[in-house]
Design goal:
By secondary structure, the protein is of the alpha/beta class. It has a single domain, classed as 2,3-Dihydroxybiphenyl 1,2-Dioxygenase, domain 1. It is built from 2 helices and 8 strands; from the N terminus they run βαββββαβββ. α1 packs antiparallel against α2.
Length: 129
């Protein structure tokens, strides 16, 4: 079970502006911020996403093959989160759609280049549509 995931950013204010809106689409909110980082989640301590300025002082970088997946309940939430991310300057990495096995997902990169997926599963309450 994942407790939290961290992503790097060199522009925390820009990252906060992006994630405050995108994560609201999946039912999460920011609950802590300081000069180096910000945390979002549905409840403190479980399934959190954090953005950090790297502690070593070097520029943030994106790991090849690294992705954060955010689970939601409906296709509409997948589509709305993806659309919102792109409107806020994110880059499309895969339009919303079925990917097999009851999985419905969409992929995007945030303004720092971090890759994210928003997904729903039919067996977890996903609605048709």
């Amino acid at each position: 079970m994942i407790g939290y995931t961290t992503l790097g950013t060199d522009d925390l204010a820009r990252a906060i502006a992006f994630y405050d809106v995108v994560l609201a689409e999946v039912g999460a909110k920011r609950f802590d911020t300081n000069e180096r980082c910000a945390y979002w989640g549905k409840r403190r301590g479980m399934g959190m996403l954090a953005l950090f300025k790297p502690y070593d002082g070097r520029p943030a970088s994106v790991g090849n093959g690294v992705m954060v997946a955010l689970g939601v309940r409906t296709r509409e939430q997948v589509e709305s989160a993806h659309r919102t991310a792109l409107a806020l300057g994110g880059a499309n990495e895969g339009a919303p759609g079925p990917r097999g096995g009851g999985f419905y997902g969409a992929y995007f990169r945030d303004p720092d280049g971090n890759k994210l997926c928003v997904f729903a599963h039919e067996d977890e309450g996903m609605t048709a549509g």
